[in-house]
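Quick question, first post here. What does this chain look like in 3D?
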Amino acid sequence: MTVEQHKTEIFEASRVPIDDIKDKAFRNVFLEPSEMYFRSVGDYVMEGDVDVHGSNIYLALLLETIHVKLNRSPLLSDEVKGVCEFDKALRKEDMEQLWNPDNLGKNWEAIIGRQNTLLWPTHKTSVERNRFYFPGNSVKQVVDNFRKSRDNNHNHAGVRSLKPYLQAFANHFSEDRGIERVCNYLKDQDSLLKNLNAVFAEIAPLEEIEEAEGDVRFWIWNVKEGSGEFRKERALSLLKFVNICH
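> Answer (accepted):
Ran it through. Tokens below.
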């Protein structure tokens, strides 16, 4: 295989962990807090509508703002249900925990209630249900009104309101977190070892290749000294070489 073919194999394989992070980050940033709020006000109907209907609003705005597409595509014809401006409603300390990247993949009960499914969560204020910063009876209408707000130089309040949500989502892909998650997945795929080692041989100095005995895992993780330290800069150089990072 050529170096480009090895790079392509790694690049394609990386879609799996990246998609997994996107899906889990979406749930932690948007769906779990929505469900927690509706539980706190005893609105079980809306709590159940978050994943089925509310997700379409959140997916559509995520795609419209930072152009992130998940495995699920928003249904633009869906009615507006199961959404709320939960960042205004939930307590600051709870939001910090819900949006903490260390809690990726956990439901709100595990984060706030320590697995207590009978927990009745609290909120600091009530907010209107079935509205998320922009009016509309359908997902498409909400997106259209977002565009009007974005394109109106005198009306950026609604657009600015989305910033904390988008930043919370982006935090899951920081160098300190996203890179190691992707590399952990790649190293666990036995079929990719030959591809990773071939790329390793292209980018690392000969001295480092010999020290790692030609094994990329010993180069990225400090296994020989027993610490298991993740060498982020080395990992980043590999991911950049295969065009996963820029």
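The chain is about 60% helix and 0% strand.
The longest strand covers residues 221-222.
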